[in-house]
Predict the 3D structure of the following.
Amino acid sequence: MQGQQIRDWPRGKPRSAQVSLEFIIVAGFAIVMLIAMLTIVLGQVRSAVNEGTLSGMEDVALTVQQELLTARSVGDGYERRFNLPADIQGRRYVLSLLSDGDASVVTVTLAGREISARAPRCEGTLRHGTNILATANGTITCAPAVNS
């Protein structure tokens, strides 16, 4: 029995070449499926990172907006320190505060994306780190803290 090839019944042809071809086809199909699954997983990871980045940008813009709304509602004599993160998910962002008329627009820019929030007018600038908001004579002023 040793040394004999398994023969395909009933024709009597050797099956070894057919097995090799079937193995290559199955292995190729498995590799294609693996690549497709990796592509899907990487897409999901990128989507989660983008969602986290957008959420972080929105948090910064809404924090500034809420601080300015609070300063306006409390009125003269209000002073508060608040912190803005240095980065969002390990990446530096650009924060701008543009005032026009009776309103300001807070804009957070990161990786080519912008998120803006409308807020009460504020004189001054904001930066990463500690900022100070104060209200006097009906005007809200904002400035980075000296030690930040």
The helical segments are 16-74. The first strand starts at residue 7 and ends at 8. The first helix runs from residue 16 to 74.
